Amino acid sequence: MTTLSADDVTVVIPVHGPQPWLDEAIASARLDRPAEVILVENGSERVDGGALPDGVRLLRFGAIGRSRARNEGVAAARTPYVAFLDADDRTLPGRLPRQRDALVANPGAALCCSCVEAIDSDGAVIAGESTREHERFSALLARGFSVESLLVDCAIYTSGTLVRRDHFLAAGGFDREIDAYEDLDLYLRLADRWQIVAVNSTPLAQHRRHGSNTASHALYEGALHVSRKHLASGVERTPGRRRALLLERRVDSLWGLGDLSGARRAALRAARDEPALLRHARFRKRLVASLLPTAFVTSLRRIR
């Protein structure tokens, strides 16, 4: 039976630099009455610890990055369940107990996720982008939460997740070397060992879109790191859909970073090792474009 409180859940919020929406994030998390909200300040020292409400604890570190900041928050938690929330996002009422109860009902699951709404800097719902996120998440639900499904499209936002603390720690937490797509890396590792479950497709968190969201260059860097890491784990020697999807992601990341010669080499190798990729329209486009003269492709990218 679903309970109203979440006194066995800790909410971890990493904080770095000025955070104009931090009070909103904290207030939204406290609505579900978690055991504690832990702020992990990462190299900025802008949060006034003395002004924080009861039930909110502040941990301060140097510039350790958001992955390690989240890990430190989980390590400091005293509850069996931990929910993540970014300092510019908001939790919707009922999220914490509903996600916790989903894990209780599925003992083999390590993580529960939910759909998110997109909001603007003022907190207003962005209808078109929210619809797109709902469609992406619904498609993920239909495919299931296998590693391969997550590699097709991982429509899971960190602020919409809750984990079993012991499973998170056993998996090694977030990779401290990755500060973009670190969430995908974690989900892939969790899905490889345990289950991931969801609270249907109703949004239970809000992801804020603003000018300081992670830059596209950093996202491509992170995606490249994730693809290389998981290929190096032995997947690269094992033919199959998982390898094909990781090879495709590597090509796409190199392309996005503007490394056209690297994308060409990676695409040719991927086509050789996984010919089924040639059925993917996006991959075919990258492969054909990578074979064109570099100067010509570079000029086209500038025009776009």
Description:
- α1 links the parallel β1 and β2.
- The model has no long low-confidence stretch (mean pLDDT about 90).
- This protein has helices at about 20-30, 65-75, 95-105, 125-145, 145-150, 165-170, 180-195, 215-230, 240-255, 260-275, 280-290, 295-304; strands at about 5-15, 35-40, 55-60, 80-85, 90, 110-120, 160-165, 195-210.
- An 8-stranded mixed beta sheet has the order 3-2-1-4-7-6-8-5.
- The chain has 2 domains: about 10-210, Spore Coat Polysaccharide Biosynthesis Protein SpsA, Chain A (Alpha-Beta Complex); about 215-304, no CATH class.
- The protein is α/β, with parallel strands linked by helices.
- The chain has 12 helices and 8 strands.
Descriptive tags:
Spore Coat Polysaccharide Biosynthesis Protein SpsA, Chain A, 2 domains, 304 residues, 20% strand, alpha/beta
Number of DSSP-assigned strands: 8
Indicate the mean pLDDT.
Answer: 92
Number of DSSP helical runs:
12
User: Helix- and strand-based class?
Assistant: alpha/beta
Label the CATH architecture of the largest domain. Alpha-Beta Complex
Looking at how many chains there are and whether they match, the oligomeric state comes to single chain
Instruction: Tell me the major beta sheet.
Output: 8 strands, mixed
For the termini, the CA-CA separation is 53 Å
Strand order of the largest sheet: 3-2-1-4-7-6-8-5
CATH superfamily of the largest domain: Spore Coat Polysaccharide Biosynthesis Protein SpsA, Chain A
CATH class of the largest domain: Alpha Beta
The tally of structural domains comes to 2
Per CATH, what is the topology of the largest domain?
Answer: Spore Coat Polysaccharide Biosynthesis Protein SpsA, Chain A
| Low-confidence sequence ranges | none
User: Strand percentage, roughly?
Assistant: 15-25%
Rg result? 20 Å
